[in-house]
Design goal:
43% of the residues are buried. A six-stranded mixed beta sheet has the order 10-11-12-13-14-15. Strands 5-9-8 form a three-stranded antiparallel beta sheet, with no helix packed on it. Strands 1-2 form a two-stranded antiparallel sheet. The protein is α+β, with helices and mostly antiparallel strands. It comes from Streptomyces lycii.
């Protein structure tokens, strides 16, 4: 497993321990972005697809490839981009954007340990807004929710995914999810007598984070590997206990 590095949030000054995701190279060897220890984390205001990738070299085969840039959701509601050591020498293979999973298996690190026995989560690499919804659906199924499917009537209901005992909202935009978004999901969960779960690509506004804590709505931030990160206690509990 990759070594954890300390990360300090520039907004709330809270210190976190971050473990970079380890993904398989096309040659099968594990590859981990080298997060710079002591380097400053930067608040991420907007996602751009070109900016979301970083060059990482495989020590086994020398191939230099583009991998999702390490990011971390802080409980204060902002999304942090972490500094990565640059590739200092060219690889022997062509550069390519490798998926987060391959024939070798799933990434390690990033997802917190659960008390519920379940196989390792296999994420879906995010390249489009539709991928964010697909990744969230896979994660809900991994948590134990059944019959999770996209909703055709999303504009009218505000619900992107619905399953047995769960409704979920998925925000793939480059702006932090708002207080209104969280309250809308909570009302939908009440009307459906189901758990409400929120997934966001760009994190949450401070008011949204505080209201979710009051309402016990699980909040997750999605990174571009498709691996959700819990950002509040309700999400931690859901990961630990499962559906």
């Amino acid at each position: 497993m990759a070594e954890s590095v300390p990360v300090r949030c520039p907004s709330c000054r809270r210190e976190h321990s971050y473990t970079p995701l380890t993904c398989p190279c096309s040659c099968g060897a594990p590859v981990t972005p080298q997060v710079r220890r002591g380097g400053p984390a930067v608040r991420l205001e907007h996602h751009t697809w070109d900016d979301a990738w970083v060059a990482v070299r495989c020590d086994a085969c020398g191939r230099s490839s583009q991998w999702p840039r390490p990011e971390l959701g802080c409980p204060c509601g902002i999304l942090l981009r972490l500094p990565v050591a640059p590739v200092t020498s060219a690889g022997t293979g062509s550069s390519h954007r490798a998926p987060a999973t391959g024939g070798g298996g799933a990434p390690t690190g990033g997802t917190r340990t659960s008390a519920v026995p379940r196989p390792a989560f296999r994420p879906v690499t995010i390249r489009t807004g539709r991928d964010v919804v697909t990744a969230a659906a896979q994660y809900l199924k991994w948590l134990g929710f059944r019959d999770v499917l996209p909703c055709d009537d999303r504009p009218g209901t505000g619900v992107d995914l619905r399953g047995t005992d769960v409704v979920a909202q998925v925000d793939p935009t480059t702006h932090p999810s708002t207080l209104r978004d969280v309250e809308c999901l909570w009302l939908n969960s009440l009307n459906s007598s189901a758990a409400g779960v929120f997934f966001s690509l760009a994190g949450y506004a401070h008011a949204a984070r505080a209201r979710a804590d009051d309402l016990q709505v699980p909040l997750f931030v999605m990174d571009l590997t498709g691996t959700p990160q819990p950002v509040n206690d309700a999400a931690d509990d859901l990961v630990r206990m499962g559906a």
